[in-house]
Here is the input.
Amino acid sequence: MTETIKKQAPLILEEIKKANSILLHCHPHSDPDSVGSVLAMKFALEQLGKKVTAIQGDNEIPEAFAFPGVETIIKKSYGEIDTKEFDLFIILDSSTSEMISFKTPVVFPESMKTIVIDHHINNAGYGSLNCVDASYPATAQILFDLLKEMGIKLDHDMAINLFMGIYTDTGGFKYSAVTSATFAAASELASLAPDFSKTISIMENSNTMEKFTYISLALGSLKTYFSDRFAIASVTKSQFDSAHLDGENYSPSEVSGLLRSVKNFDISICLIESAEGKVRMSSRSKDPVKFDVSKLAVALGGGGHKSAAGATINLAMPEAIEKVVKTAKELYNF
Here is the structure.
């Protein structure tokens, strides 16, 4: 447990105790760290007797996320709720306020305090209270330490959600940010929820033919640069439309993660044009010390981790590819 957690835990608990109605949210195109963290926090707050509302955010939560309590998440985005109904908003796994919603400007009413809990390196701390520690590989691992420090008793359902957040955001415990503390947390969570493998199995074996159509489109577009060390796969809006697919339903990280396994690729990129002039980027690095992709993401208006990061580029696909390649060349001296 870091000093950040020890210092912030009592302050966060104090704000929670003062609150009457608390809001939680999943970030756009939510991943298991976002959903699992939200659900674990929701259970913790309810354990403290609080009224809690959790919203799905901009996009529907994938059916494959069969996490305990997922059915209690309300299918609304930030712009579809009355924020004045809440006196506290706990913002999880969102490096900037824009990560709360892409659909609408994010404004916090003066009556609503905000607590930001996150592990992204580019999080500058935009809440009334901030618990940001980039040494953690997942927000779920921060919550594991934070909730214990706050005196919350972890149960089976909380453990499953925290475990899934840690498991996925570490790439199955493969990424460089994983430490012995990560394994210790996972071990304790697994002892509380020994059936965790069932949830992993459901998540990893719920692919659809449509998803493989998307992946095939991306792989079919693969181009390499800088002596095959830098790879970009892309899918345009017109390709999605021709295949009768909605690009908003797919994550570029599914392809960038797959490409990272190619021996020669130092950096792997996937670009999705889910709407005209809006390209979502996911980047992966095989050597995050030498090729820190968070720098590329930040330069393009996004953020993330050294080994995995993303951004939204408001350009048409050809211009977006050109910008990514040019920026990478400047950053990494290819």
Summary: The chain has a mean pLDDT of 95.
